[in-house]
Amino acid sequence: MLTRAGSALAAFTVLCLLLACTDAGVRGSADLTLFRWSGSSSKGEGLAVSAQSSLIQTSWLAEDIGGRGVIDNAQTTITFDGEGRVAGSGGCNRYFGSVAIDGAAVTIGKLGSTQMACVPALMDQERKYFDALAATRTYRLDDTGHKLVFLGEDGTPLVRFSRSSSR
């Protein structure tokens, strides 16, 4: 039976191989939090369950970060799996981490990432994206399920995504 540290090392190794990570330096933690689905909600019960379910196994492409748009050729993405994890590209570096969703609340845990250097403008956008993920407290989907918005503590939009067809 693997210890917690052994399990974390095994998970890190697999993720590095999957992400074609050549740099052994990874920031963050390998602790994972499973999705937490609320059994019921006093408001919009059917809507909350539908919204949560629609995030599983989906990929999203950032259209706007902090109200400043994005660099067009930088693919800043996020993918939700069914195991309580997120992964994607910050535009320069690949990242992965844990996520917990409870109703409209979302918490993205510490992220691990590759540590490649890109042009300063792209590195600045990636830093703002990672900061926005850390500050995300809630999310909302549009009526069609094609737009996802991460919101901060005060309800300010932090990142707007469009559904990606890559998954």
Description of the structure:
- This protein is of the alpha+beta class.
- The protein has one domain: Lipocalin (Beta Barrel), CATH 2.40.128.270.
- It has 3 helices and 8 strands, in the order H-H-E-E-E-E-E-H-E-E-E.
- It has an 8-stranded antiparallel sheet, covered by helices on one side.
- It is globular and about 40 Å long.
Tally the structural domains.
1
Q: What is the number of beta strands?
A: 8
The gross shape turns out to be globular
H/I helix tally:
3
Report the structural category. Answer: alpha+beta
The whole-angstrom Rg is 16 Å
CATH level-1 class: Mainly Beta
| Strand order within the widest beta sheet | 5-4-3-2-1-8-7-6
> How much helicity do the residues have?
25-40%
CATH architecture descriptor text: Beta Barrel
- What low-confidence regions span 5 or more consecutive residues with pLDDT below 50? 12-52
- CATH fold label: Lipocalin
> Main β-sheet: number of strands, strand sense, barrel status?
8 strands, antiparallel
Provide a short characterization of the protein structure.
The chain is 25% helix and 31% strand.
Provide key terms for this protein.
single chain, 167 residues, alpha+beta, Lipocalin, eight-stranded antiparallel β-sheet, 3 helices, 25% helix, 31% strand, globular
